[in-house]
Amino acid sequence: MNSVMNYFNLESTSGIALYSFVVIVICWIFSRLSRTLLILFLKRRLTKEAFGETRLKFTRNSLRFIFGMIGVLVIIFTVPIYREQVGYIFSGAGILAAIIGFAAKDAISNLIAGLFIVLFRPFRIGDYIKLDRGMGIVEDITLRHTVIKTFENKRLIIPNSVISTESVLNFTIYDTKIVSFNNFMVGLDTDINLAKRIISEEASKLDFVIDNRTPKAVIEDSPEFDVRMMEVTDTAIHIRAYIWLSDPLEEFKVKSFFVEAVHKRFKNEGVSLPIPLRKIVR
Fold it and tell me: What is the pLDDT of residue 107?
């Protein structure tokens, strides 16, 4: 310790600044080195797991935070003027603990919530999720917050303590295929068989559509697409097509193409569309 003080002259402002800079650089080097070794040692094994990338990235963020804290503590407890101030502060440890606990409660809750997300795995980096406040792709999970890339190419940053208490709809956590509900309304005098045939034919032309029938259903030549009449109202017949897709990220685009194609076929083949009826009371 005395050699360090003599070399850097920790009694002067310039000496303290130089010493702090050296400590920060050393901690940064060790942080980079440890994260590089972590990648070399764990990446091959973790990336084979479903949640490997998430755990790897969270661990890297944790190491950066830990080495940063180590650097700060080394500076505080080795520079005499800082060490004296810490001694004065800790003389009122009870008050200090209360102040720090109150000020850092959000940071601590975010840190613990982030750790729980990594341990219990409700979602991972790269998952397509939907929350009460938005939907998108999980881009990063840090010690404090989760970053979600929306479909508008914006970043939704949510504290871990908040996202851990929300209901999360995960589209890709275990299986990427999804069933898409596609609703159509036709007139009351429509030939239902014709409308269902048009919907099935247009569904077979879509990209990302998969045949989700069981082997038994294929042998029995059951319809590839499940198209059902849901209800009859005063003005229309409600038909729903259940279409299985291989990629949930493409659902919005596929639904748009599907609705447009079916609507054009309905017009070309004379399928009547619902006409709202209004009763005027004089």
Answer: 72
